[in-house]
Amino acid sequence: MLRLWRHLTWPTWRDQPGRVVLAVVAVMLGVALAFGVQLLNGAALTEFARAARGINGQPDLIVRAATGPLTDADLVELLNRPEVAAANPVIEGRALWPGQETPQGTALSLQLIGVDPLALLASAAGARPLAPELVPQLDGTASPQGLGLLMGAQTLHLNAAAHRLLRAGQSTLTLRLPQPHGGAPRDVTFTVGGRIAAGNAPLAVLDIADAQALLGRLGALDRIDVQLAGGTDVTAWQRTLPARWRAMPPADEGARLADMTRAYRVNLGLLALMALFTGSFLVYAVLSLATAQRLPQWAMVGVLGVSARMRWRLILLEGAVIGALGSVLGLALGLGLAAGALQLMGSDLGLHGASSDSSALLFNQPLLAPAIACAALGLAATLLAALAPALTVRRIAPAQVLKGLGLPAGRAVPAWAGLALLAAGAALAWVPPLAGGLPVGAYLAMLCLLLGGLALVPALVRGLAALMGWLPAGALLMLARERSRDQAGEARRSLAGVLVALALAVAMTVMIGSFRESLQQWLDEALPADLYLRSALHAPLQPALIAAVSRAPDFTRVTQQRATRLRLAPGVEPVALTARELDAGGLPLVARWPGPATATPVWVNEAARDRDGLTPGHVFRAELPDSGGRAVDLQVMGVWRDYSRMDTAVWMHLPDYRRLSGDAATTELALTLAPGLTLDAARATLRRLGGDDIELAAAGELRALSLQIFDRSFAITVWLQAVALAVGLFGVIASQSAQALARKREFGLLRHLGVSRRALLKLLVLEAGLTGGAGAMAGLGLGLGLSTVLVFVVNPQSFHWSMDMHLPASRLAVLVGLAFAAAVGASLLAGRRALGADAVRAVREDA
């Protein structure tokens, strides 16, 4: 094998290194993207889980009230239980930081956490402190002495993200705190104390007594973190608690985020593997071209005694070397891409806070398993790509090849197999998603559609050749028709790369275009007002402000909205509930209940329909946790399209909500401007009425921001489409070159028979036009089929977002025209090289 490598493979690689380098680069890019995406996903989950553990601490159980807040009496009752070793009461809130703004230009809000220093001190005396990252640090380390800092009156202890916003030497900090029952916020000045390690976003910790007093929540608690005595059975003790408490193990926020983002991460990973998938066709083209160029050598060594098995193993070895080099370089490049992305976004992954440095964030996760998996994928892809050329070399008859009969005909794939694969793809598209919303059936359907389309290419070429019989007769036309009909199987191999790349590019173009068009229509429906107002503290708006805005002549309509929560069943986590005046618009429905309402009507998003079974007409009982846990009977009157979230959300008519809950608070206002009034004038009026305590957003600004985020999110897909299509087009050029070189003796014979070089070039153009047209048509048809699966199956199953199909005709025409022009241009380039004097000499050598 080494001698064969030295005499057959190495000279070709040495004389034509560019092709080998391109094949290695194709594998390298595919592996790098897959590995880099995996590392970034892992880093994001690791950092999010670390930040959540820092804030939530390490209790055995977190106790909350079944409805409403906990009280100090609940804390006393828990501490009196002999199984409780330590209990830390916690209250959470938000404050506005005057003078500080977010990158989006809105006022910065600071998260506040009130904790009990004595409870933390009691837990620190044990083996497992409850919340070590909430303890103020002395000399960069948390210690019991740091707990004493928490007892300072009106003293805030900031994390690194908040500390960076302080001016040099600043020792005090003024925050604007919300007040209960819609009271006017008030400014409070704090002393800046020590530093804490928790959190990525700006965060401050203070004594819980101060937090309760300053936030107007005396005697109220949000949660109690409980640490049990050694030997206590957590599950058994949990069952002894009264029904008014909800005790759950500390939520693994990393696992929760992993569940929420699983579909997105899988889709992004498969998108990254698209480059590796198309790169395998480039490897196939390079090895096929090398096989065609060395065909006489393969025949000669076959006559001299080299077995078919050794020839087959040598081609696979070439593929393995390309795959190994590409995989190793791809792993290094993927690591560099991930590190560069972390440096660009910050070690907090865009969360605008502080965390460990990017290198620690990158390497504090398992690297060996994903590296092995990505390298194995790269190697497997190249070995599969090398399999077809290896089988070709294994099947050659050396004596016939030496007589100039060219490459052996490949085994024909019957048309019924292609039709069966297409049928299987259509059937698999109906398979429900797995747990977590993974559309495995849809991806298998897309693979079957691609394979079925490839299998039907010969039949399509033969069909087009038959249609050419209706054209005026001519020698060149007859030769092109008969050659295309006889070598239809070769068309599948030569067009495989560009067909797959074109199909994927068409599918992604249609899916992205459909999504963007649907998003624009949704934004127009979901944002019917001109301007939107809410509290900068995300708290209820003051009644005086609502009344003043309603009286202002600048606005023809003021629509109130209440954002709150709804519990679909006892003991489950609440979901988002929005109560608004629905006659003002903003409800893009996709399904309606035609019958009468037998309970209070609500409208749910598609995630609620798919995940919770809330179909139109369904009647269910729910609880309003923010209104004392009142039980209400609701009926689903419709399903609305919701591109703003992937979780369950419910809308209710505002008068119905206020009647059921007794809650008259308002959290947002939707404002319609008077005719002729400018946005700047409206903003000035609202600033005069609400000051800096409000946030304003115009509908046009929200639309532009949403589309900007959409375009930025899908920018990588456009780049991957370009890479995949370029790889496929190069594969066409390489495949056409291989076929032209293998036909040297055929061209030489035609030259001896009197066919001119120009006529032979016309013949090649006719053949390339026939096969290229078949490939372009097949790629367009497959792409439309794949886009149908993406639009109507993958997106609804993964993200619970439906959309309407939209065909960007101009972009599709460019893609199809580019693929067709590449096939014809590649044939011309290869023909000019193959129709030289060597073709005539080849016939003389054969004689």
Protein described:
- This is ABC transporter permease.
- Residues 270-397, 722-836 form the ABC3 transporter permease C-terminal domain.
- It is found in: Cell membrane.
- Its main location: membrane.
- It comes from Pelomonas dachongensis.
- By secondary structure, the protein is an alpha+beta fold.
- It has 4 domains: 1-39 and 263-356 and 378-408, no CATH class; 58-249, no CATH class; 409-527 and 701-847, no CATH class; 528-700, no CATH class.
- The protein is 57% helix and 17% strand.
- The chain has 28 helices and 23 strands.
- Strands 14, 15, 16, 17, 18, 19, 20, 21, 22 and 23 form a 10-stranded mixed beta sheet that branches. It has a 9-stranded mixed beta sheet with strand order 8-9-7-10-4-3-12-1-13, with helices on both faces.
- Helix 2 packs antiparallel against helix 9 and helix 2 runs antiparallel to helix 13 (368-395).
- The chain starts with a helix and ends with a helix.
- The model is unreliable at 346-356 (pLDDT under 50).
Short descriptors:
alpha+beta; elongated; 28 helices; 847 residues; ten-stranded mixed sheet
By helix and strand content, what is the structural category?
alpha+beta
Question: Average pLDDT value?
Answer: 79
Total helical segments: 28
Helix content: 55-70%
Beta-strand content bin: 15-25%
> What is the terminal separation in angstroms?
33 Å
Number of domains: 4
Task: Please render the helix and strand layout as text.
Blueprint: H1 2-15, H2 17-56, E1 61-65, E2 70-71, H3 72-79, E3 84-101, E4 107-115, H4 117-124, E5 137-138, E6 141-142, H5 144-149, E7 155-159, H6 160-163, E8 172-177, E9 186-196, E10 203-207, H7 208-214, E11 220-221, E12 223-228, H8 234-239, E13 245-248, H9 253-293, H10 295-303, H11 308-345, H12 358-363, H13 368-395, H14 398-402, H15 415-428, H16 440-467, H17 475-486, H18 488-526, E14 531-535, H19 543-551, E15 555-566, E16 575-580, E17 589-592, E18 600-605, H20 606-612, E19 619-624, E20 630-640, E21 649-653, H21 654-661, E22 668-673, H22 679-690, E23 694-698, H23 699-713, H24 715-742, H25 744-752, H26 757-799, H27 809-834, H28 837-846
Helix pairs in contact: 1-2, 2-9, 2-11, 2-13, 9-13, 9-18, 9-24, 11-13, 15-16, 16-17, 16-18, 16-26, 17-26, 18-23, 18-24, 18-26, 18-27, 24-27, 25-28, 26-27
